[in-house]
Amino acid sequence: MKYILLIMLSWSITFASDATIEVIKKAETLPSLAIEDASINYDDTFKLRFFKMLVADMNVLSLFNVDRHHRIAHFNDVDVLVENKDAEYVLRYMMSQDDDESLRVSVKLINANEVIFSKNYKVSKKDSYYMFISHAIAYDINDYMGEPSVAWMKRKVIFSRVVAPRKSEIVIADYTLTYQQAVIQGGFNLFPKWANKAQNAFYYSSLSGKVPTLKYVDLKTGTVQSVMSSDGMMICSDVSDDGNLLLLTMAKNGQPDIYTYDKKRNRLKRETTYSGIDVNAQFRDRDSFVFISNRLGYPNVFAKKLGSDEVEQLVYYGRSNSACSAHGEYVVYKARETSNAFSKNTFNLHLISTKTDFIRRLTATGVNEFPRFSKDGDAIIFIKNYKNQSSIGIIRLNHNKNYLFPLKFGRVQSMDW
Amino acid sequence: MKSIVLSGVVAALLVFTGCSKDPAVDQKADAAQDVAQEQAAQEVAPVATETVSTEDSVVNSDSNSMSMSDVESQLPTIYFGFDKFSIDPEMQEKIDMAVALGNKEAASYSVKLEGNCDEWGSDEYNFALGLKRANSVKKAMVAQGVDASRIAMVSYGESNPVCTDKTQECWAKNRRVDFKLLP
């Protein structure tokens, strides 16, 4: 399958107010959804490609049991297909080509022979952008069903792909990696980070020169600026919601520490001073951040308020927790579950709440790393390396489902969304 | 019925190929690789040979000093234990050798210490571990009199492996610090 959607864990779950508690619900209780293709243009290959994308998106919503049969229908027929008469919902769509060769898609959602939702979508280049229509349809249907927003579906993922030793490229993609555009090629450039909510600019670390340098790319104007350099390490770990405050990892004199950089005031401030390793700062809110430190002799998750010297240990389990992300009271972290130099190691993601003692393990196999909460905390995106395959994974916390989107070549080094 | 135009969502994306100053060098490397791959598909022409008489051969007597790449090839690699950045006695001997070279043949160059890690993680912590390894080597060199201002450091984390097999020996080869000379 060209557009593979691997459903790793397909048990369905709901939870009350604590995302670390699992309450199991049977998958059969989800309503069934059939998808009918009523397209009047385009060849079968493209029709099937769009259908698969839509099935994948509707699956990721985790609201329906999606029928994966590709069936052809007439858009204006009142009745649904005979094969789909038992489906609680039928999503019927019609792709057509406009005079300017743009792709137009009309959609209707049918329930009990009533059209309960309809909308039209359009993109200019069908082969390049069709997946964004599929994501928009899923977003709108989720919205219509009254579920918490899946706005992250419409956001773009930016990631660095290592293609050879010390050779990488920075790629912008949709969340399924179906759409991909390399925006920085040549050299050794890592740790891309969106610079604002609008996703029209980003930071990245250039390791091609003598000293690691943080660069800023404005996608609207196509300009690249050097922001600052530091011996050893120079990484933008996180950007505040308003885009004005950056959490940096810098290593002046070989000492990795966390700094804040106020863009408006052009002010750099050192936030940690421990003589070991302090890295991976992620905003918890505007006034505090979580980070990774080895101040106990092994990497673990800590929190600190901006402007305060007080450091709080957040995670009390595991002896090697080397990456993290936070959203409100929740912290997701990467834990090494085997610890030796002589065999393959397993790294899994765990979720904790700072208000309870529960731990929820979110992954089961392979090397799972680089967890990042979505802005609304609904989902976690992460990198999975397993059996020589690099993928981007999405965890729907509220539904306890993981989805993997494999990369066709190269290895994902880091990413942001 | 509402209508939405999505083309703007992605139309703003631009391609910056080698847009920073430094990648330009690597672009050439990429181009060279492409050419090499193309040529591999073709039949290779016979190697052109030319006989040069010994009388024509002139040894440049001015080239007693070693070139930068010659010196660099003599610099050792320092290896580290799993999850460690401390220097073993055996590796200390190699650093002593590097310092000797650094104070004589390489005295006119700066040194860039490149810290590297095995494949277990691409996160910042792994990069910091690589940097700590480089910094351990730097401290050992400075302790022996090398001027700290001559030494730059960078960490490549797990992204610069010399070996990609899934074996213990291979992972050990990647936990290392390399010396590179800068003019």
SSE layout and pairing:
The complex is a heterodimer of chains A (about 425) and B (about 180).
Chain A: E1 6-9, E2 12-14, E3 23-25, E4 32-37, H1 44-61, E5 65-66, E6 71-72, E7 89-97, E8 103-111, E9 114-123, H2 126-144, E10 157-164, E11 167-173, E12 180-185, E13 189-194, E14 201-206, E15 213-218, E16 223-229, E17 234-239, E18 245-250, E19 257-262, E20 267-270, E21 278-285, E22 288-293, E23 300-305, E24 311-313, E25 321-327, E26 330-336, E27 347-353, E28 359-361, E29 367-373, E30 379-386, E31 389-396, E32 401-406, E33 411-416
Parallel strand pairs in A: 4-5, 4-6, 4-7
Antiparallel strand pairs in A: 1-32, 2-3, 7-8, 8-9, 10-11, 10-33, 11-12, 13-14, 14-15, 15-16, 17-18, 18-19, 19-20, 21-22, 22-23, 23-24, 25-26, 26-27, 27-28, 29-30, 30-31, 31-32
Chain B: E1 3-5, H1 7-11, E2 16-17, H2 23-40, H3 68-74, E3 78-79, H4 89-103, E4 110-115, H5 124-143, E5 151-155, H6 168-174, E6 176-182
Parallel strand pairs in B: 4-5
Antiparallel strand pairs in B: 3-6, 4-6
